[in-house]
Design a protein that fits this description.
alpha+beta, 2 domains, four-stranded antiparallel sheet, 63% helix
Length: 291
């Protein structure tokens, strides 16, 4: 690869291309790709025009593979977005005259291979997460608890998906029910107590005990869903509230023994920020979303 291609490949790694794991593959935001390849001020308009043109060129098969999926927009809301797999994107960018096309193909191949390697060996994902948090300055005990918390979280969201909860607003409501029952604080109030920015990931600023308590609440919610065979948002919400109350009672017992609140105002904003490449790893992994 030439030096220029290397430079452009690095540029793609530093820019945000939204993506989502769907049907056992990565689906990338087409307008994000167009914004990088064309430097267009209005990539959505460019994409609309390109779609019309590619239909005339006989790219119907590629266009049929495009999926409209929910991705987080700049305003923080989940919005329907045209997405495509690596293979479909490669077909689309054939119609985009750009000197950046070839290094972009290489970038797609690289990130795709990373994901498939992680599927074959999940420990690669976990180890990258460990390395990233170490670089930020977190201690080993906290990191291991954070990873365990995420494993429990993923098991719970799998149950929500299978039992009829809608990702986005409903996941957020269910999560808030558990947090409020566990700590007597909504997620928003909990962030305010820790003096965190609104868009911060609350769990990245919890103590190991807070992480253990929220894990207890979420593991209990999973148990209730299965034992009660709950389906639909309202039954799931009741389970989440009941599970939060179970974790809340455990918190109260601990506080009675130690004589003070275990809900900490501590945050980790003081920790060293990761290098840019490590920030990108977190962004690409998206292992800890607050759904």
């Amino acid at each position: 690869m030439t030096d220029n291609a290397n430079s452009q490949l690095s540029e793609f790694e530093q820019k945000q291309i939204r993506r989502v794991w769907h049907k056992e593959d990565w689906y990338y935001s087409i307008v994000d790709v167009i914004a990088i390849l064309t430097d267009s001020a209005r990539p959505s308009v460019y994409w609309s025009n390109l779609k019309a043109r590619t239909k005339k060129e006989g790219f119907d098969e590629a266009l049929a593979q495009i999926e409209s999926l929910q991705l987080k927009s700049q305003d923080g809301r989940m919005r329907q977005t045209d997405t495509a797999t690596r293979q479909t994107l490669l077909r689309i960018i054939q119609s985009i005259p750009s000197p950046k096309a070839e290094p972009f193909r290489l970038w797609l191949a690289q990130v795709g291979e990373e994901r498939f390697a992680e599927i074959e060996n999940p420990e690669l994902t976990i180890e990258r997460v460990r390395s990233t948090y170490r670089a930020k300055g977190y201690g080993e005990d906290w990191i291991e608890q954070r990873i365990r918390t995420d494993v429990i979280r993923n098991e719970l969201t799998d149950e929500w998906s299978e039992r009829g909860a809608q990702e986005g607003v409903q996941y957020a409501i269910l999560t808030n029910e558990i947090n409020e029952g566990t700590f007597e604080l909504s997620i928003q109030a909990h962030k305010q107590y820790k003096l965190l920015p609104v868009k911060s990931n609350l769990r990245d600023h919890m103590t190991t005990l807070e992480l253990a308590l929220i894990s207890l609440g979420e593991a209990t919610a999973t148990l209730f869903h299965r034992e009660r065979d709950s389906h639909g948002f309202q039954p799931l919400k009741k389970d989440a509230r009941d599970a939060g109350n179970v974790a809340g009672k455990s918190r109260e017992m601990i506080e009675e023994e130690v004589g003070h609140s275990v809900v900490s105002s501590e945050n980790h904003l003081r920790l060293e920020q990761p290098k840019e490449t490590e920030e990108k790893q977190i962004e690409q992994l998206e292992m800890f979303p607050e759904k």
